[in-house]
Specification:
Helix content: 40-55%
Structural class: alpha/beta
Pfam families: HTH_1, LysR_substrate
Radius of gyration: 22 Å
Strand content: 15-25%
InterPro entries: ArgP (IPR017685), LTTR (IPR050176), LysR_HTH_N (IPR000847), LysR_subst-bd (IPR005119), WH-like_DNA-bd_sf (IPR036388), WH_DNA-bd_sf (IPR036390)
Largest sheet: 7 strands, mixed
Number of helices: 13
Protein name: LysR family transcriptional regulator ArgP
Family: Belongs to the LysR transcriptional regulatory family.
GO molecular function, one term: DNA-binding transcription factor activity
Distance between the termini: 48 Å
Oligomer: single chain
Number of strands: 11
CATH superfamily of one domain: Periplasmic binding protein-like II
Length: 289
């Protein structure tokens, strides 16, 4: 029989990124959290955490985290059916990309969260790697660009976000007077969201350029737009996010005939209860562009 206090300690250590912060979240000392993890490992007969060079679950730990995520959601359904059970606001941990959060996500889920009394724990992750969070048991669901479901999970297509390479008119006149050429790509500073962001690379490959390029790193969707609007670089942005800046003439595409379409898929565990099923139906009604 599993001791769910031990599983909760494991999940909290991973979610908080350390024993001390997990202790603060659980109202326990760091030592008490460590003892719960040790007790879980003794009961299981194998480690559940890799502590060095960085904290992450072992394969066994991932299985336990996946189970814990699903139990959380099933318990929420049970509380709805049996109101006399101790009530608690449901919390759903979801990985999604920053551009979705900066554009359509809030409008899509706000009514649902209010109606359900749902608390969101959002993990911002690039759309190309968010699925790893689900596989590791760190989240109950994720938005990502992969259409390949993992074992035990469902994959639902939500639509497509279209990205364009935007910059200010002055920047375009300075670096791209002859359009998107190889010389321009070698010299013009780009803006890249982070080390896992491949949108810029895919756009350059689409233009026939495969070499190195100077770039800023900016792990903030809003900051990304502000840097581009400030004239220090060009970058791939969804039209939905910068419509007003484009309409005002403050941003324009360096290659109007080119764009990148990024499909988004909603992944979630199959046996995670009615809450995720209802959220999935809500997300299925949105239209991305």
């Amino acid at each position: 029989m599993l001791d769910y206090k031990l599983l909760e300690a494991l999940a909290t250590v991973i979610e908080c990124g350390g024993f001390e912060r997990a202790g603060a979240a659980l109202g326990l000392s760091q030592s008490a959290v460590s003892q719960r993890i040790k007790a879980l490992e003794i009961r299981l007969g194998q480690p559940v955490l890799i502590r060095h060079p960085h904290l992450e679950p072992t394969p066994a730990g991932r299985r336990l985290l996946n189970h814990h995520q699903q139990v959380r959601l099933l318990e929420r359904d049970l509380r709805s059916a049996l109101p006399t059970l101790e009530a608690a606001s449901p919390r759903l941990r979801i990985a999604l990309n920053a551009d979705s959060l900066a554009t359509w996500w809030a409008e899509a889920v706000s009514d649902f969260c209010r109606a359900e009394g749902l608390l969101l724990d959002l993990v911002i992750e690039d759309q190309d790697v968010g699925l790893k969070r689900l596989r590791d048991g760190d989240v109950a669901a994720c938005l990502c660009a992969s259409d390949q479901p993992i074992a035990g999970a469902r994959c639902v297509p939500l639509g497509t976000m279209v990205y364009h390479p935007y910059a200010t008119p002055d920047y375009i006149a300075r670096y791209f007077p002859e359009g998107p050429t190889e010389v321009a790509f070698r010299q013009a500073p780009a803006i890249v969201y982070g080390p896992h962001d491949q949108l810029q690379h895919r756009f350059l490959a689409q233009c026939g350029y495969h070499g190195a390029f100077p770039h800023h790193l900016c792990p903030s969707s809003e900051g990304f737009v502000r840097l581009a609007a400030g004239g220090i670089g060009y970058g791939m942005m969804p039209r939905l996010q910068v419509e007003s800046l484009v309409a005002e003439g403050r941003l324009a595409s360096i290659a109007p005939a080119r764009s990148l379409a990024v499909p988004l898929y909603w992944h979630f565990w199959r046996h995670s209860g009615e809450l995720l099923a209802r959220l999935t139906r809500v997300l299925g009604d949105i239209v991305l562009r």
